[in-house]
Amino acid sequence: MATPHPLDTAAELDFVLALRRRWADRLYSALRAEYDDATASAPPENRAAAGEAAQTLSIYPWFAWMERGSQKMLWRAVESAVADIAPIQPPHAPAGSLTLDPDLAMPSWYTDWDIHVQPGGVWQSDMSAHTYELGAKLVMLGGNDDYTFHRAFVDTCLGPLHGQKVTRLVDLGCGFGKSTWPMKRAFPDAEVIGIDLAAPCLRMAHQKSEALGLAIDYRQADCRKTELAAGSADLVASTMLLHEVPRPVLEATIAEAARLLKPGGLLRMLDFQFTGDPFRDHHIACHGARNNEPFMPGAMSADTVAMCEAAGLKNAGWRAFDERGAGRLDALAWPERTEWHFPWAVLEAEKAS
Ligand SMILES: C[S@@+](CC[C@H](N)C(=O)[O-])C[C@H]1O[C@@H](n2cnc3c(N)ncnc32)[C@H](O)[C@@H]1O
After folding, report:
1. What's the rounded Cα separation, in Å, for the pair 125 and 210?
2. In this structure, are residues 195 and 226 in contact, taking their beta carbons and an 8 Å threshold?
3. Which end of the chain is more exposed for a tag (fewer CB within 10 A), N or C?
4. Which of 320, 196, 178 is nearest to 253 (CA)?
């Protein structure tokens, strides 16, 4: 196949981004308006009833098709944009480290389908990491090019530390490092460790961290079994990990995070929660299905607070999070918005002293 001209690639990326924005903004609000009209006399009381009502609406097939169709188009555009990109090179004289485990078995729930509809997932080759990196910007509707919400997470969620000095911070499911960089910037003297299953993402994370002057240690491991010492971390954090794993893995990940924490140490996990609005919650659950994130509804309805308590953590609870910049909100309640967006929330807990 002939390599596309860079202008064609840029036009393709712009087109897909515009299409996705239109889906999130115009199509979702039009669907909501049609739904509100149709159900005004008897508003559905739960997700299932809201789903039944939504599926009878004229806009629904367009909305549902566009959700998955535009995501597939996105990956096609991204794959051609990164087709000629250079392989990931190990940095010269790194200040941080990279520890890969060639014997680590990839769990079948991780490899059996292509997460986010990304062909081949994020773990198979260098190209997977390049594709994921560029795709992540478009998946967030172009609103995360400068990683605003990762910074907001660090600035508004990683405390208060009750005078405890942070000597070790662990980022579970660190991907290609975009969640880990602001953690290292906020705690420059701490040992910052990023854990992920995907070797290509870790190689990219390591290369980019060194280029950014951030000495971070990346390790390939399953979040359920990090092999780090018990009671060695002041902070254990994750962003967008919990909804990607089956419920038993979610529970084991929380238990492992609790094991890693020192007494008084903090757990902070940025993910998603149901909002109590049946229409919105139905469409988030459907997003899980249409976007190949099959564990999303199960993770969002799991009793993660009870899991924290069973793991020896206290003061567990969720707070809403505004990814546009404000970050952590004081309650599990979100500002009114008309466009489709994720119901961001933070799971907070601390290790009993
Ligand atoms: C949506 S990405 C989030 C990456 C990063 N935290 C961010 O915010 O950009 C989820 C990451 O979790 C990793 N992951 C999923 N399950 C895992 C597990 N059991 N152990 C380690 N990493 C896991 C995936 O490989 C992926 O890189």
Report:
1. 21
2. yes
3. N
4. 196
Q: Is 208 helix (H, G, I), strand (E, B) or coil?
A: helix
The pLDDT tens digits of the residues spanning 259-295 come to: 999 999 999 999 999 999 999 999 999 999 999 999 9
| Of 184, 240, 176, 169, nearest in space to 208 by CA | 176
**Residue 201 CB–ligand 1 contact under 6 Å:** yes
Q: Which amino acid is at 110?
A: Y
Pocket of ligand 1 contains residue 198 by CB under 6 Å: yes
Please state, in angstroms and rounded to a whole number, the distance separating the CA atoms of residues 239 and 241.
Answer: 6
The finding on whether 222 has its CB within 6 A of some atom of ligand 1 is: yes
Query: Checking DSSP bridges between strand 191-196 and strand 168-172, what pairing results, if any?
Result: parallel
Distance 250 CA to ligand 1 centre (A): 12
The C-alpha R_g of the chain, in whole angstroms, comes to: 20
Low-confidence ranges of the chain (pLDDT < 50): 1
- Give CA separation, 49 vs 6, 53, 292, in Å: 47, 6, 23
Is the CB of residue 311 below 6 angstroms from any atom belonging to ligand 1? Answer: no
Alpha helix stretches (DSSP H) within 83-168: 108-111, 126-139, 148-157
DSSP annotation of 105 reads P
CB 34 within 8 Å of CB 58: yes
Atom of ligand 1 nearest to the CA of 222: 20
DSSP 272-320: E---S-HHHHHHHHHHHHHTT-TTHHHHHHS-HHHHHHHTTEEEEEEEE
User: How many angstroms separate the CA atoms of 78 and 100, rounded?
Assistant: 27
